Amino acid sequence: MTEWIGTANKNYASYAMEELRRMFEGMSLSLLSPGETFRMNIPLEREEVLQAIRNDKPIFLRYLQPVDASRELSLDADDLDWLGDWLRLSKSKLDGLRVGVHIRKADGSPFPYSAADTRAVLDAVLAEAGAEPAHKQPDRLVAVYASKDTLYAGIGTPEEMLSDWPGGAVRFQREDGQISRAKFKLLEAEREFGLDYSTFSHALDIGAAPGGWTSLLLERGLKVTAVDPAELHPSLKAYRTLTVLRKNASEVKFEPESFDLLVCDMSWSPMQMSRLVLDDITPALKSGGTAIVTVKLMHRKPLQTIREVKTRFSEHFIVEGARQLFHNREEITLYLKKK
């Protein structure tokens, strides 16, 4: 039996929990922070759990923290002393490695110390134990979660925890003149799926306005054809590598295999979107080309919707990944490769 803490996007914990119930027979679940964070007891060894997650990565599970130790909150310095002692006992797992520290608190947790103060204490213990405290590119992560009555602690790799950001909350710095926050979704998809947009040459952006995704691809050096009946941000006119078609996507036709990257972030129903992409747009994508597509979850059966959309796309695409990213809201992101 192993214990874990899982995190999903706000109001999507129930779907993450349902995915995990289907994956792990006999597990027990309890909420720690309504709609977002939950505790799991799984009747398998740690490596068996991690292997199952690697083999079939859940869509809605954003962050996975192992629970190696826990204690009831004392609400005084004893809590920090206990964390320090536990970390010293874990020296063999961390010696000589770059180690990041993730501190999180449930809403309403009485744990009296800030994340910065707790991290400072643990960084000092790490340095004493022969590890290098690291805020970027860590080899290992020390994760601490304070619920309303309990302190949970665990150690794992960023891959095992599904993110190198606390709770999987990926933060990008907003830039001066940034067109929209939608740009963060495409940036996060690049990280999540191990892509490098600069390796592509010609992208088709469907539903492009106001131009957040288009701007990122232009900055990476791609030629971009942007399709949307609405106007794109005026700053994009400076790019000679941009072609704008102010039309509905269903009204445009392209030569076969004109593009090696397709991105689509339309506020259409999942079935309308998949029908448009498959019937009208897919022929314009090269064989082996990549597609990044958001799927809006517009009703109460998202798992069923996702299954139906993935089945539709699998006729012409290999579904390489499906994830609800931190910057997704009422949607998920698909990573597809054209057959």
Provide tags for this entry:
7-stranded mixed sheet; 339 residues; Rossmann fold; alpha/beta; 5-stranded mixed sheet; VC0802-like
Please characterize this protein's 3D structure.
With 339 residues, the chain is an alpha/beta fold. It folds into two domains: 2-168, VC0802-like, CATH 3.30.2130; 182-338, Vaccinia Virus protein VP39 (Rossmann fold), CATH 3.40.50. It is 29% helix and 29% strand. It is built from ten helices and 16 strands. It has helices at 13-23, 46-55, 77-89, 91-94, 115-128, 158-161, 182-192, 212-219, 270-281, 302-313, and strands at residues 2-7, 28-33, 37-42, 63-66, 69-72, 98-105, 132-133, 140-146, 150-156, 202-206, 223-227, 242-245, 259-264, 285-296, 317-323, 331-338. The strands form three sheets. A seven-stranded mixed β-sheet has the order 12-11-10-13-14-16-15, with helices on both faces. Strand 2 (28-33) and strand 3 form a beta hairpin. Helix 7 crosses helix 8 (212-219). The longest helix has 14 residues, at 115-128. The mean pLDDT is 95.
Straight-line distance between termini: 41 Å
What spatial order of strands do you see in the largest sheet? 12-11-10-13-14-16-15
Number of strands: 16
Question: How many H/I helices?
Answer: 10
Number of domains: 2
**CATH uppermost class of the largest domain:** Alpha Beta
Portion in helices: 25-40%
Detail the poorly predicted runs: none
Radius of gyration: 22 Å
Summarize, please.
By secondary structure, the protein is an alpha/beta fold. It is 29% helix and 29% strand.
Helices and strands in order:
Layout lengths: L1 E6 L5 H11 L4 E6 L3 E6 L3 H10 L7 E4 L2 E4 L4 H13 L1 H4 L3 E8 L9 H14 L3 E2 L6 E7 L3 E7 L1 H4 L20 H11 L9 E5 L5 H8 L3 E5 L14 E4 L13 E6 L5 H12 L3 E12 L5 H12 L3 E7 L7 E8 L1
Parallel strand pairs: 6-7, 6-8, 10-11, 10-13, 11-12, 13-14
Antiparallel strand pairs: 1-3, 1-4, 2-3, 5-9, 8-9, 14-16, 15-16
